[in-house]
Amino acid sequence: MSVSDTPETLSVNETIKTKSRFLRGTLAEGLAVAESGAISDDDQQLIKFHGIYLQDDRDLRAERAKRKLDKAYSFMARLRVPGGVLSAPQYLAMDRLADERGNHTLRLTTRQSIQFHGVIKTNLRPALRQIDKVLLDTIAACGDVNRNVMCTPNEFAGAVYAQAEATARAISSHLLPHSHAWREIFIDDEKVTAEAEAEPVYGATYLPRKFKIAIAVPPQNDVDVFAHDLSYIAIVEDGRLVGYNVVVGGGMGATHGDAQTYPRVGDVIGFCRIAEAVAVAEAVVTAQRDFGNRSNRRRARLKYTIEDRGLAWFVAEVNKRLAVKLEPARPFAFSGNGDRMGWLTGDDGRHHLTLFIENGRVADIGDWRLKAALKEIAGTLDVSFIITPNQNLIIARADDAGRAAIEAILAAHGVRLRASVLREAAMACVALPTCALALTESERYLPGLITKLDALLAEHGLDKQAITVRMTGCPNGCARPYIAEIGFVGRNPGRYNLHLGGAHDGSRVAPLYREDADEAAILGILGALFADYAKAREQGETFGDFTVRRGVVAL
Ligand code: HEM
Ligand code: SF4
């Protein structure tokens, strides 16, 4: 049993946080050591609070070990960008950053952020300064704090969306760590000090574990409100946003073979007015701060606090911390958890394109020059960019001429606006080669598998049927596979746990159907199910509901 498994003992990370002097540790010194591309173990934990992970290229590990070389270390940096909204100049700066400091690609994430991979140590501070120059940052994009706040796009499409986005920004600002460590370590040249600071919301040891918040505007559940620690569902009455239903205790992560850990969908616990949304966030966060498990990090997310103490207890604890108590939840309905793809025209006549980007990877590969196309659009047109919750990109606010120009630029760069229905809704996490936790491929494998699944669907006349497919390279579940209709969770090289029976709107956990399936098994199972679905589905029945009704999986 490790230290962190003993309930009475604080986990190692708690000591690291306590000693860190508000997230400083020895990061400044460690980053200045030119002889190594890495940093100390403790600092690797602390740098996450600043939106950065130390990684290494796993494709090169074996070869480098043979040659007795150090691992090929580099850093991954993740932006904090509430609701995923970037101005064109900000997007251009991020494009340049990927070329000058990263691996020439941008990765749009499942939580509406951008990740830069392959930033070597000497490039890290210059990269963060470039980010700071365009008024962006990476503060709290990882670590035991509130992360990037998600919100159904798009704020330019109507007043309700704009208000929801304003709430997302207000929550993000309110829960931002007060520590100046990020600025001191990465941006300013002033000496790092241990001056007295305070964290009014978090306290000196921050949260027991990561914390995730999302806001959905129905009928879209694109942000997957049931998958986060805390979510808000916009309630619109007579065309006006009146407030939010509050959802708590969702979370995806699990550990293979550990029954104490599992994915969980959140519970709707009440309704709050718009003006109370930030107070509700603080109440939920501080309840988790005070009662979350600080001994065992595998059981430290809010979902386990709620499971261990009971939902009624948790709701009472939140209400105790609120001046205005939660009201009864109001009715809502979701139609699905994908993005609205293609062009949308707002009441003001402006056009917004949700552009399909496979697994969020913006790159130039052969004749497909997406990165160059987006750069040209950002550099020449008056538009905004919004990263969607499903790894796609909205090019927003185009006028009629802009719309025509966008289509021409994309076509000239070999970029198609749309893909198959299955591919458009599919998501994969990064996994290999950068993610240290990956057990299997994900981003590099899913596109090929989708081609084969598309062929199977076409055989049965199902190629227009919307089905959500998601894959991750390990059970942490970064692409939310456990609430997809078809979820793949990496188990062993080339083999995946297959989950079936998720709801099309992301509202239930998909049970495990088959463990450790290789591609032949996956295609065999899904081919047979698609054939049955084509014959025996009821009017309008989604694939997830069908697999439950037919008893393929039991909820
Ligand atoms: C113990 C649990 C988890 C750990 C240790 C973890 C760790 C990581 C790491 C190391 C990466 C970087 C991969 C790379 O870019 O190379 C990553 C990516 C990411 N994770 Fe997690 N993760 C966990 C759970 C989750 C969950 C449950 C979610 C959301 C539901 C999530 C959301 C993300 C997102 C949005 C990315 C960006 C890449 C992408 O969109 O594929 N993570 N995670
Ligand atoms: S799901 Fe696992 S493999 Fe994929 S990015 Fe997250 S931690 Fe890495």
Describe this structure in words.
There is one protein chain. The chain is of the alpha+beta class and 555 residues long. Among the domains are: 342-420, Sulfite Reductase Hemoprotein, domain 2, CATH 3.90.480.10; 423-549, Sulfite Reductase Hemoprotein, domain 1 (2-Layer Sandwich). The chain is 32% helix and 19% strand. The chain is built from 17 helices and 22 strands. The protein is globular. Bound molecules: protoporphyrin IX containing FE (HEM) and iron/sulfur cluster (SF4).
Global outline: globular
Bound molecule kinds, no repeats: protoporphyrin IX containing FE, iron/sulfur cluster
> Gap between N and C termini, in Å?
33 Å
- Provide the CATH top-level class of the domain at 423-549: Alpha Beta
**CATH architecture assignment name of the domain at 423-549:** 2-Layer Sandwich
Number of strands: 22
Mean pLDDT across residues: 96
Enumerate the spans where pLDDT stays under 50 for 5 or more consecutive residues: 1-7
Helical region count? 17
Per DSSP, what share of the residues sits in E-state strands of 2 or more residues? 15-25%
| Class by SSE composition | alpha+beta
* Helix share, percent: 25-40%
CATH superfamily of the domain at 423-549: Sulfite Reductase Hemoprotein, domain 1
The biggest beta sheet is recorded as: 5 strands, antiparallel
| Rg on CA atoms, Å | 23 Å
Strand order of the largest sheet: 1-2-5-4-13
CATH topology assignment of the domain at 423-549: Sulfite Reductase Hemoprotein, domain 1
